[in-house]
Amino acid sequence: MPILTKEIVRNQFSELLSDEYDIRTVARGNTSGTTGSPLEVCYDDGVNHMNYAMLDRQYRWADTELGKFGDRVAVIRGNVIVPLDQKKPPYWRYNYLHRQLLLSSFHLSADNLPAYIDELSRFSPRVLDGYPSTLYVLAKHLKNRGEQLPIHAVLSSSETLYDFQRETIEESFGCKVFDYFGAAERVLFAAECDAHTGHHICEEYGITEFVDRDFEPVPVGEIGTMVATSLHNLAMPLIRYVTNDMSALKREACTCGRGLPLMDDVATKAEDSLTLRDGRIISPSVLTHPFKPLTTIEESQIVQESMDLVIVRVVPGVGFSDADKCQLAHGLQERVGDDIEVHIDIVQKLERAKSGKFKWVISKVEFGI
Ligand SMILES: [Zn+2]
């Protein structure tokens, strides 16, 4: 059966819409388009309900409850909550109907963080739901102050959750992180149970395959591109849709006893990896290691400009020194080799995408496989 690429969906949008639906009234959604132009897809009610059901189950696996009669939730995701040029708190709004505190992801700066923490303490949510990067900024700030803000569970999604982020978030909020994985195209969903051994692929939602560059299945345990088929969206059924995400199916079943198969924790976006001249692909997880001992780094971002140059943007924290800078450069150089220059740039602030999402590694070089 042939595959379906983003390009086909973009170019043959109306042919892919079912005749049963009217293009003027059907519900639509967009991918955030961090890799270029965003993609639009149509949804039927069934897939919207199924999506909510998967999220509801993820909340339950975290021993929390979603919705009107559910738990108090603080949400820090991509929505623009307050004007972007606002200079004073409140950087949040309330959704009383759903018991939510909605916090802006676009105003997280050293000056504003104390106000965020005060508001979170006052609201006292049972659940915190956000992007790994934004949750990490809050957690790191608490850690710097030597404080904790106990919450029942943290839910993260939409970006790769790195181990260093998970550790700091769990420490500062005194609870476990449950990471879930979906896509705006609504073709796949994967959720983490309380055994924390990986992500359960929700097979009721869609069929997920792991393939190589020729779209042939990769062996179990090997990393491959995720190709997914929706089982619910009758408005625009996407069959063998090629995502930008990569992960591996796990050999072992989960210790929790649930029958849904497991995939690896890290679902890496293809463009989040470095491609080297000798053909090696360096995954972002590998690049986290040189940062681990350097607690004086507040935030960072890695940009591969070309086959010859990687720029590392570093927001220095208290006590950051030239020796730290050298140690970092050396540690990264060791991992990428001598064919490519690693340049450390000291900056005051890192930029977020329009969607509010943050990419820790950006490669401007064509992906190697
Ligand atoms: Zn499990």
Short description:
The chain is an alpha/beta fold and 369 residues long.
What topology does this entry show?
Elements: H1 6-11, H2 13-16, E1 27-30, E2 40-43, H3 45-61, E3 73-76, E4 92-95, E5 100-103, H4 113-123, E6 127-130, H5 132-144, E7 153-157, H6 163-173, E8 177-180, E9 190-191, E10 199-201, E11 206-211, E12 224-230, E13 241-247, E14 262-263, E15 268-269, E16 274-275, E17 281-282, H7 284-288, E18 297-306, E19 309-316, H8 322-336, E20 341-346, E21 361-363
Parallel strand pairs: 3-5, 3-6, 6-7, 7-8, 18-21, 19-20
Antiparallel strand pairs: 1-2, 4-5, 9-10, 10-14, 11-12, 12-13, 13-15, 16-17, 18-19
Helix pairs in contact: 5-6
This protein binds zinc ion.
Task: Describe this structure as you would to a colleague.
This protein is α/β, with parallel strands linked by helices and 369 residues long. It has three domains: 6-51 and 181-270, Rossmann fold (3-Layer(aba) Sandwich); 63-175, Rossmann fold, CATH 3.40.50; 273-363, ANL, C-terminal domain (GMP Synthetase, Chain A, domain 3), CATH 3.30.300.30. Helix content is 22%, strand content 25%. It contains eight helices and 21 strands. It has helices at residues 6-11, 13-16, 45-61, 113-123, 132-144, 163-173, 284-288, 322-336, and strands spanning 27-30, 40-43, 73-76, 92-95, 100-103, 127-130, 153-157, 177-180, 190-191, 199-201, 206-211, 224-230, 241-247, 262-263, 268-269, 274-275, 281-282, 297-306, 309-316, 341-346, 361-363. The strands form six sheets. Strands 4-5-3-6-7-8 form a six-stranded mixed beta sheet, sandwiched between helices. Strands 11-12-13-15 form a four-stranded antiparallel beta sheet, with no helix packed on it. Helix 5 crosses helix 6 (163-173). The chain is globular, with a radius of gyration of 21 Å. The model has no long low-confidence stretch (mean pLDDT 90). The site of zinc ion has 6 residues, from loops.
